[in-house]
Design a protein that fits this description.
This is TetR/AcrR family transcriptional regulator C-terminal domain-containing protein. Keywords: DNA-binding, Membrane, Transmembrane, Transmembrane helix. It holds the Pfam family TetR_N. InterPro entries: Homeodomain-like_sf, HTH-type_Tx_Regulator, HTH_TetR, TetR_C_Firmicutes. The protein has 201 residues and is mainly α. The chain has 2 domains: 52 residues, Arc Repressor Mutant, subunit A (Orthogonal Bundle); 138 residues, Tetracycline Repressor, domain 2, CATH 1.10.357. Helix content is 69%, strand content 2%. Strands 1-2 form a two-stranded antiparallel ribbon. The chain is elongated and about 65 Å long.
Length: 201
């Protein structure tokens, strides 16, 4: 396959992706047809079908690509050596994650704000849970306090996903570096550490 052909395919897929996300924002996923996508992307329907079976296949491919990119980046077990977690490396990992989400901000914001996109929020939640479960197994850490694995992973994955969604919904008002710093602090010290209160048991 020639470089020229490769570039043409990349350009065509970008046109389709941009048109698809624009239409979801305007009409919702359910109302969109392949003809709508092709028309907005200024391509023929035949060109669309060269790359995707239908709008569901398009959605699945875009989702898989976005999550695969995040999966490559979210690997905290890489930063643990001799039972010591390198906080600076962890922060850098989180910066890359936020940068990656920022680079796909239109996709994530559209998918999360659409009320009829099939199972996207559920897919994202399951992705984070599965990813953190795998990383937990790779870390092979002993626990100071007994907390069931499911509760711990659900708490961590839901908390980080919640922060990411909030960040997107608020136009990514903070830089990736700042977000990484805050999440690292919360992961290491816990939410209780930020309140100036005494605790009774």
């Amino acid at each position: 396959m020639s470089e020229k052909h490769d570039l043409r395919v990349i350009r065509t897929k970008k046109l389709i992706k941009d048109a698809f996300l624009e239409l979801i924002s305007q009409k919702g996923f359910t109302s969109i047809t392949v003809q709508d996508i092709a028309g907005t992307a200024t391509i023929g329907r035949g060109t669309f079908y060269l790359h995707y079976k239908d709008k569901y296949d398009l959605l699945d491919q875009l989702t898989d690509q976005a999550l695969a990119k995040l999966s490559e980046l979210i690997q905290p077990s890489f930063h643990l050596r001799d039972n010591k977690l390198n906080l600076e490396e962890l922060k850098q990992m989180l910066i890359h994650v936020f940068d990656a989400i920022r680079s796909e901000k239109t996709f994530f914001k559209t998918m999360l704000s659409s009320h009829d996109t099939p199972n996207f929020t559920q897919q994202l939640t399951q992705f984070f849970f599965n990813k953190f479960t795998a990383e937990y197994e790779n870390l092979n850490l002993s626990q100071k306090k007994e907390v069931p694995k499911g509760i711990l992973i659900s708490y961590l994955s839901s908390a980080i996903l919640g922060v990411i969604i909030w960040w997107l919904q608020n136009d990514m008002m903070y830089a990736s570096e700042y977000m990484a710093e805050q999440i690292t602090n919360l992961l290491i010290n816990g939410p209780a550490s930020i309140f100036d209160v005494e605790y009774e048991i």
